[in-house]
């Protein structure tokens, strides 16, 4: 929200406070002292705004505008506006001021408590937010589901995955029931987080249980199959790992680059070089990408010759130009070149490498966040599974 909008809102809020106070004073007949005090607060608040002293203007607003059923929503809106502007301390001040008013009815108190919990989440005070939200879950039937959704957010940021799974289950009132589409993939990611922790701790039995749970929530979970393939390989079953990893391109070809290294390792472990080359060739025809092209070119180089690999890469680049492919193509020619030609190829290869390094490899389809690492949870918009490899001449 722009500063101008914020300025207008505060100005209007103080004006409303002055008007309501004046109106109230007239009705009660006690006009002079109260009216004078409100007019003075209004003038001071306006002066603070004109001096760009927003914090002082907000303080004046809180003092001047009495909390009542008529002004409750205005206070609430101001607190939410401040939170969106990143002014968390001021937002907390406004919502705490509401909570301190016993004259408000129960539902208004609970709404203020919910907004205060959201302030704490935004400020990173997750333990405080968790306490407020747990209380609302237990005491407010109107705000129970909304509070549970924010509680899931808190547990996600605290990496309390088991608690997050439990909170989502409570959203629907029944445990282990298959969830609607909007929550099932999220549940699967929570289980995958637990599976990753178990694999890293070499607790493979627990890892398998969490992966099974993830696939139960979302049988199309790419991440769960990637983890299952990794688990099978760690357990010394590369053939089973191959079978699992080869599901991924059918589920979502955007994640093909993520399976390649382990898939090649598994094929090598079972000694099936021919099977690997055939599979990579099929992948390239059905889901062309630079990672597959480079992997297949490497196999041709190892199994046949550098010249045949270069010829293959050259044909593919003519069909589907890319910077990564061009860089690999130059690599295949540098060793056989001599003198000035070799120096020029080195120079060109370095330029291409720098250009590739300056471009992001991954981008979030939801918010546009970009980086060079695959995040299952976008660090910017907090969406699960929305970060994918970049396509096009500079990407895959």
Which features would summarize this protein structure in a list?
396 residues, mainly alpha, three-stranded antiparallel sheet
Describe the overall structure.
Strands 2-1-3 form a three-stranded antiparallel sheet, with no helix packed on it. The model has no long low-confidence stretch (mean pLDDT 86). Strand 1 and strand 2 form a beta hairpin. The chain has 396 residues and is mostly helical. It starts with a helix and ends in a 7-residue tail after the last strand. It is built from 20 helices and three strands.
Walk me through the topology.
Layout: H1 3-28, H2 32-50, H3 54-64, H4 72-84, H5 88-99, H6 106-123, H7 126-139, H8 144-158, H9 161-171, H10 184-200, H11 204-217, H12 222-234, H13 238-245, H14 248-251, H15 256-270, H16 273-286, H17 290-303, H18 306-319, H19 323-334, H20 339-357, E1 362-364, E2 370-371, E3 387-389
Helix pairs in contact: 1-2, 1-3, 2-3, 4-5, 4-6, 5-6, 6-7, 6-8, 7-8, 8-9, 9-10, 10-11, 10-12, 11-12, 12-13, 12-15, 13-15, 16-17, 17-18, 18-19, 19-20
Based on CA inertia axes, which overall geometry fits?
elongated
β-strand number: 3
Mean pLDDT: 86
Estimate the strand proportion: under 5%
Q: Which structural class do the helices and strands define?
A: mainly alpha
Supply the number of helical segments.
20
Q: Could you give the order of strands across the largest sheet?
A: 2-1-3
Ends apart, CA distance between termini? 37 Å
């Amino acid at each position: 929200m722009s500063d101008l909008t914020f300025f207008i809102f505060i100005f209007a809020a103080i004006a409303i406070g002055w008007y309501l106070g004046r109106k109230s004073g007239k009705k009660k007949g006690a006009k002079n002292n109260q009216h004078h005090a409100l007019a003075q607060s209004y003038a001071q608040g306006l002066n603070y705004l004109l001096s760009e002293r927003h914090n002082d203007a907000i303080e004046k607003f809180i003092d001047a505008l009495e909390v009542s059923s008529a002004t409750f929503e205005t206070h609430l809106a101001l607190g939410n506006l401040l939170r969106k502007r990143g002014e968390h301390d001021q937002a907390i001040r406004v919502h705490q001021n509401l909570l301190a008013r016993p004259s408000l009815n129960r539902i208004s108190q609970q709404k203020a408590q919910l907004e205060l919990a959201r302030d704490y989440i935004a400020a990173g005070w997750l333990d405080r937010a968790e306490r407020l939200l747990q209380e609302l879950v237990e005491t407010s039937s109107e705000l129970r589901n909304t509070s549970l959704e924010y509680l899931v957010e808190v547990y996600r940021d605290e990496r309390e995955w088991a608690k997050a799974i439990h909170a989502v289950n409570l959203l629907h009132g029944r445990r282990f029931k298959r969830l609607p589409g909007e929550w099932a993939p999220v549940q699967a990611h929570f289980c995958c987080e637990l599976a990753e922790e178990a694999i890293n701790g070499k607790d493979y039995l627990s890892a398998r249980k969490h992966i099974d749970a993830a696939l139960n929530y979302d049988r199309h979970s790419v991440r769960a199959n990637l983890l299952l393939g990794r688990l099978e390989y760690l357990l010394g079953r590369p053939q089973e790992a191959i079978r699992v990893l080869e599901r991924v391109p059918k589920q979502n070809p955007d994640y093909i680059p993520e399976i390649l290294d382990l898939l090649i390792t598994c094929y090598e472990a079972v000694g099936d070089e021919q099977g690997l080359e055939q599979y990579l060739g099929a992948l390239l025809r059905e889901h062309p990408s630079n990672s597959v092209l480079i992997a297949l070119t490497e196999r041709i180089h190892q199994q046949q010759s550098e010249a045949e690999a270069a010829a293959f890469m050259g044909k593919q680049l003519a069909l589907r130009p890319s910077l990564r492919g061009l860089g690999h193509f130059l690599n295949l020619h540098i060793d056989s070149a001599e003198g000035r030609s070799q120096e020029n190829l080195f120079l060109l290869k370095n330029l291409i490498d720098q250009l590739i390094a300056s471009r992001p490899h991954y981008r979030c389809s939801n918010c546009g966040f970009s980086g060079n690492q695959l995040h299952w949870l976008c660090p910017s918009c907090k969406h699960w599974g929305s970060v994918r490899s970049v396509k096009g001449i500079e990407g895959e």
